Amino acid sequence: MKRSHLYLAISLAVSGLFIAGCNSKQDEADAAAQQQMPPATVDVMPVQFQTVPIIKEFSGRIVAYEVADIRPQITGVIDEILYREGGMVEKGQPLYRLSGENYESSQAANQAAVQQALANVETAKASYNNSVANIESRKAEFEQAIADMERMRPLVSEQAISERQYQQTETRAKTAKAAYESAIASAQQAQANIASAEAAVATAQAQLSGSQLSVDRTTVIAPISGVTERSGLTVGALVNANQAQPLVTISKISPIYVDISQSSADLLRLKHQQMQGELQGGSARVELILEDGTPYAEPGQLLLAEAKVDQDSGAVTLRAIFNNEQYMLLPGMYVKARLLQGLINNAVLLPQSALKRTPRGEAQVYIVDNEDKLQVRTVTTEGTYQGNWIVSDGLHSGDRVVIVGGANLQPEQKVITKAYQPESNPAAPAQGQGPVAPQNQSNQGPVAAPNTNAVQEQNRQGPVAPEVNNNSAATDAN
After folding, report:
1. For residue range 416-469, what is the model confidence (pLDDT) as tens digits?
2. CB–CB of 255/65 below 8 Å?
3. Are 262 and 337 in contact (CB under 8 A)?
4. Deepest in the core among 8, 273, 282, 439, taking most CB within 10 A?
5. Is 266 helix (H, G, I), strand (E, B) or coil?
């Protein structure tokens, strides 16, 4: 038994040596065959530094320009609906008519109260005029009594008249004086009565105005122009003043807003790039892609960027405004928005076939050195533009980047190079074509944006949009 085990071990060892020898010979044969094979041909493109617009695509939500929830301001029953549900209404247009019998009765009563108050004023004025006339009469009597008393005083000392006659005259003077003072007091009271009657008129008129306002509010009108939704209540429904449920909602949708969320971290990164001179200011121009993939006809403008960061999402909200005369954009609709974040200096545009990704997600390209051998170069990308990668770091002037033919090759492998012809790759635009500006012209004019003639406000420090899918060209404009 032991001898058989020994034979088996020797046999396995010999077999292993034989297999190893065969593998070594196979490797040597493969290497020799590779040396005998002609070098592979690759298409290369020289590095050209340019100023490239960074255009990001992100989701946006349509928001109405103005929204008004219509609620009644009085209590009543809906008698009539005066608009077409879902249609356009103008500011001031009647929407609902409510029952108004009670308010009309109150209005009539208040009108009568105003008329009565006005009559009371006239009565008070007439009384005052009588009081004034009475004052003049009493004043004349008082003055006459004083004159008689003064005339009879020396006659008493001369005993031409009796003391009793003089006292009677003096009594008449005091009585006339009291009557005169009473007439003055009556006139003052009559004047006060006029003021009171006029105040009553003002109160009655205020009550009349209130009842008139209630009658007017039996017709509910549109406070803004816009599109109506379905009516929340029907004819015959009882409504209350300031109820929670609106009768209908009106939305003004021309113009219209698009709200966009931007990462605060991305905002800081782009601001740092701008401060360091790596990135020029963006533009306030915004373009939309509708849900069916078609572009919206008119570009919009950024209005504002909120001066706060949402604590839950860590994002800043941007708001853009668009014309919407055809009413293609509706509140609540989700769209894709394209925004020129800025212009990156000293960037290189490479077709997508030039880049590879490592398992760690790093971007790499093949460079052909002076000995026509392949070298691996790690690069930094800033998204894509018109189907090309934007490379911001890792390449040098004079580098020859492999665009086509490097998929199955290895570093240090010798190759034959030929100039890359963009026409052979329809997916990638020709180098130098499209809206990119050479570096030496970056300060001579704005860089064009996709589907536009020029990007406005090139050096303006405008809001920036969050980077979307920086490692994929699926969301970029072609």
Report:
1. 899 998 864 444 333 333 333 333 333 333 333 333 333 333 333 333 333 333
2. yes
3. no
4. 282
5. helix
Which DSSP category does 371 fall into? T
Mind listing the pLDDT tens digit for each residue in 202-260? 999 999 999 999 999 999 999 999 999 999 999 999 999 989 999 999 999 999 999 98
- Residues forming beta bridges with residue 55, ordered by sequence position: 340
pTM: 0.60
| DSSP assignments along 97-146, one per residue | EE--HHHHHHHHHHHHHHHHHHHHHHHHHHHHHHHHHHHHHHHHHHHHHH
Residue 361 lies in a domain: yes
Distance, CA of 169 to CA of 174 (rounded, Å)? 9
Which residue segment(s) compose the domain that 409 sits in? 43-62+251-441
Q: What is the pLDDT of residues 52-94, one digit of tens each?
A: 888 888 889 999 999 999 999 999 999 999 999 999 999 999 9
Q: Pull the structure tokens for residue 368.
A: 């052909």
CA 92-97-103 angle, to 5 degrees, is 105
With cut-offs at 50, 70 and 90, classify the pLDDT of residue 179: confident
pLDDT of residue 444: 32
265 and 401 inside one domain: yes
Number of domains in the chain: 3
Q: How many C-beta atoms lie closer than 10 Å to residue 439's C-beta?
A: 14
User: Can you tell me the distance from the alpha carbon of 454 to that of 462, in angstroms, rounded to the nearest whole number?
Assistant: 16
Contacts of residue 414, defined as CB under 8 A and 6 or more positions apart, other chains included, come to 39, 371, 372, 373
